[in-house]
Amino acid sequence: MRSDEQYMRMALEIAKAGIGQTSPNPVVGAVVVKDGEVVGLGAHLKAGEPHAEVHAIRMAGEKAKGATVYVTLEPCSHYGKTPPCADLLIETGVRRVVIATTDPNPLVAGKGIAKLQKAGIEVQLGVMKEEADELNRVFFHYIATKTPFVTLKYASSLDGKIATSTGESKWITSEAAREDVHRYRAVHDAILVGVNTVIADNPSLTVRLPEGGKNPIRIVLDTHLRTPLDANVIRDGTAETWIVVGSEVSGEKKKRYENEKVQIISLGTPYIDIKELLRVLGEKRVTSLFVEGGSHVHDSFIQAGAVNEIVAYFAPKIIGGKQAPTPIGGVGFANMADVMELQIRQVERIGPDIKIVAIPNNK
Ligand SMILES: Nc1c(/N=C/[C@@H](O)[C@H](O)[C@H](O)COP(=O)(O)O)[nH]c(=O)[nH]c1=O
Ligand SMILES: [Zn+2]
Description:
By secondary structure, the protein is α/β, with parallel strands linked by helices. It is built from twelve helices and 14 strands. This is Riboflavin biosynthesis protein RibD.
């Protein structure tokens, strides 16, 4: 006989099957247990497809009656693309429902639980809540702010340079570290770079992984529309590209860029305001944004207080040179009292490199 925590840990593991696939929905896992036996399990795999509870209850069949259901997120109670899971659990006649965390969506918060309790089902809340909240931190951020969860990534030498003074940067980090970056790209709705990075590196910003992976939308911040017309992000047609420009860019210049995969987004102000950009991206259902540089763009996101996570890779190389660029350029902070403070959440070796993941301290 396993404990509630052990079954919930199982449900959390199963939920992870949906990571990078369910946007704009959360990832959810469910496990059905009857008389100490796991009789059903399920994960939400894609928006519009059945929820985790539906898969698990279907698999349990008759055995679901009188069973206990472990689910990592409060069962939904509103008619979305699929009927509410709370109703399904009631009709199925389950005895007890153990929930890790409640849904932050105002449409749902607490309603699913209330429905279950009204139907006489025993509900236990908060088992492995921390882990469940962490698993859906992107979804919860998007629901709460209607703007994308922003992860800022850079790769630098040990002495903090992202390129040599002559602009060379291939490659600083190892194949293994760069593959890790592609894993981040594959689970993000969009990836963003500044036009200087497009001019310097002509990046493709696609996902090249042995196991494949979905290409995120490519976003280029380009106030005056300087992106070369023959740039990969314009020409290669492998992924959608949105170029964000200022209001001074003329109509006929924009037309030269637009094709079936490339669209121009004008924010209506001469310069790109990051907060306004994130609001517009949120409206276009971008729930997660991977910002891959360069240093000026990184600084503008930091100055806008718009960074939710930082992923930094350090290679055992020294580039040196006063002119060589560092990860965060722009204006920076003049006083130590104003610097961005973080807490380090993860430090790991990847091949010869080091990867550090840090999140801002909510000052
Ligand atoms: N120079 C390096 C990086 N460089 C990051 C960006 O400057 C590149 O333009 C971008 O990753 C290229 O994208 P691609 O064409 O899709 O491969 N990023 C890294 O992790 N390690 C590096 O050593
Ligand atoms: Zn549901």
